[in-house]
Amino acid sequence: MNVINILLNIILVCIFGQLATISHEFGHAIPALVFTKDTVKITLGDNTTKTKEINFSKLCIQIGRFQPFLGFVDSNRSKLTKWQRIFTSAGGPIISLVIGVSLIFISGIINYNLLKKLISFSAYYHILQFICTALPIIYPKWWLGYGGYPSDGYNIMSNIKGI
């Protein structure tokens, strides 16, 4: 029974991690689509191997090898103003925070225990994602595909300082 619980928890973490990553990346992509006429690409998972692409007008979604916690948005940031770059960088963490807080409130009105636990878990995962991306840091080398890259918070601070 314990092995089944462990496997179910791993599956749930992967599902909620993927959904949180998708919503976070859309938080970056939507402002980029609004601010530029160029194509904006969302990459989900590891794109070092064969990928599948889905195109919607100016939005390209590239799906690589399954890594539920890995995602990037690529847009032509050189055509954006300083404040547009800040807003685009902040879009992902803002979406993560808004979804996390919303799910906390939703879980408070749910009476069904299992659903309440699932919604609460998703809420706290989104809040954790907000914290990890909003902190102005360069991710350590061991950080799941993000090692050596700046966080969204770091990008925001760099744009504010004009670096």
From TrEMBL:
Signal peptide: none annotated. It is a multi-pass membrane protein. It is found in: Membrane. Keywords: Membrane, Transmembrane, Transmembrane helix. Its cofactor is Zn(2+). GO terms for cellular component: membrane. The chain crosses the membrane at residues 6-23, 86-110, 122-139. GO terms for biological process: proteolysis. It holds the Pfam family Peptidase_M50. It comes from the Bacteria. Its main location: membrane. Residues 22-119 form the Peptidase M50 domain. The keyword Transmembrane helix applies. Belongs to the peptidase M50B family. This is Peptidase M50B-like.
